[in-house]
């Protein structure tokens, strides 16, 4: 039963995705070619484009393979800050090559 249910859920997801994709293309083509296109088509097109920017393949960090934990960033940031502070320190003047030591 679980395998058949998973197949049905997958099919529904595919059909919903195809329907939303068709709706988006309808809105984009209507905006491009119809002088009567309006706010609804613009909202559908902009909303679909905005959704395409979202990361849809996200998983919790605890389940992600090769994810860097937040505890590993702190030492890297602190090391970077140390190098930045060292660069800002005033350096002693370079010896004058014309002055005898």
General description of the model:
This protein is an all-alpha fold and 101 residues long. The protein has a domain of 53 residues. It is built from 3 helices and no strands. α1 packs across α2. The longest helix is centred in the first third of the chain and has 32 residues. The N and C termini lie far apart (91 Å). The mean pLDDT is 82.
Quick summary:
This protein is mainly alpha-helical. It has a domain at 1-53. Helices cover 64% and strands 0% of the residues.
Topology:
Elements: H1 2-33, H2 39-52, H3 70-88
Helix pairs in contact: 1-2
Order of secondary-structure elements: HHH
Report Rg. 29 Å
Which whole number gives the mean pLDDT? 82
Number of helices: 3
Question: How much helix is in the residues?
Answer: 55-70%
For the record, give the distance between the C-alpha atoms at the N and C termini, rounded to a whole number. Answer: 91 Å
- Count of β-strands: 0
Beta-strand percentage range: under 5%
Oligomer status:
single chain
| SSE-based structural type | mainly alpha
Largest sheet: none
> What is the general shape?
elongated
Question: Low-confidence spans: pLDDT under 50, at least 5 residues?
Answer: none
